[in-house]
């Protein structure tokens, strides 16, 4: 019997627009630590999305909205890394979710497996941002995994000057998170 290898397509979204973001670095580490059955594609255009405005839904969608929509439809799952802004998620990330929730198909977010992670130089990591993000994703019907949790606190001590994740414990948490995501995707296929 011949088995066909399945590649799980995961769209990686960083909620940070900063070039040297710890959250983008966390996604790069996830790509490097992902199981061989998983392919991560990065979407770096959250800053290109116009602020959600229902008037912009008339006629052709803005190109950045259409692009994100297509990438979410392509994916089997999403991996979102979010910083914490004022005890919640960044406006750019919330804006992207608002846009996608307005697509006729909900951008395929309903029932789509998603995992959340985050990194911050603060002592609490991204605890409050992740709680807020999980609540928002639940409202749009996403299938958000609750465990394991990856909340990287004191991120400046866990990444080197080039943005490479050097902390073995955080690396192991990412490996566990991605393995659980792969299991969830497989159950849904």
CATH topology: Rossmann fold
The appropriate CATH architecture is 3-Layer(aba) Sandwich
- Tell me the fraction of residues in β-strands, as a range: 15-25%
Order of helices and strands: EHEHEHEHEEH
Strands, count: 6
Per DSSP, the total helix count is 5
CATH class: Alpha Beta
The chain-level mean pLDDT equals 93
- CATH-defined superfamily: Flavodoxin domain
Task: State the domain count.
Answer: 1
Share of helical residues:
25-40%
Largest sheet: 6 strands, parallel
Spatial shape: globular
State the secondary-structure class.
Answer: alpha/beta
Measured between the Cα atoms of the first and last residue, the distance is: 20 Å
Gyration radius, rounded: 16 Å
Q: Give the low-confidence spans.
A: none
Protein name: NAD(P)H-dependent oxidoreductase
GO molecular function: FMN binding; oxidoreductase activity
InterPro entries: Flavoprotein-like_sf (IPR029039), FMN_Rdtase-like_dom (IPR005025), NAD(P)H-dep_reductase (IPR050712)
Pfam family, one: FMN_red
């Amino acid at each position: 019997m011949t088995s066909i290898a399945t590649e799980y397509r995961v769209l990686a979204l960083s909620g940070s627009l900063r070039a040297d973001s710890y959250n983008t670095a966390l996604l790069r580490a996830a790509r490097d630590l992902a199981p061989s059955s998983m392919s991560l594609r990065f979407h770096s255009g959250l800053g290109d999305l116009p602020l959600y405005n229902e008037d912009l839904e008339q006629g052709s969608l803005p190109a950045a909205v259409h692009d994100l929509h297509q990438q979410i439809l392509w994916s089997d799952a999403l991996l979102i890394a979010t910083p914490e802004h004022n005890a919640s998620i960044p406006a750019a990330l919330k804006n992207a979710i608002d846009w996608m929730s307005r697509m006729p198909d909900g951008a395929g977010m309903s029932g789509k497996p998603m995992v959340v992670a985050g990194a911050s130089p603060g002592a609490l990591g991204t605890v409050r941002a992740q709680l807020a993000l999980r609540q928002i994703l639940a409202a749009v019907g996403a299938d958000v995994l609750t465990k394991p949790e990856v909340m990287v606190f004191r991120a400046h001590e866990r990444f080197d000057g080039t943005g490479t994740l050097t902390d073995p414990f955080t690396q192991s948490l990412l490996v566990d998170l991605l393995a659980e995501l792969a299991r969830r995707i497989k159950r849904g296929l």
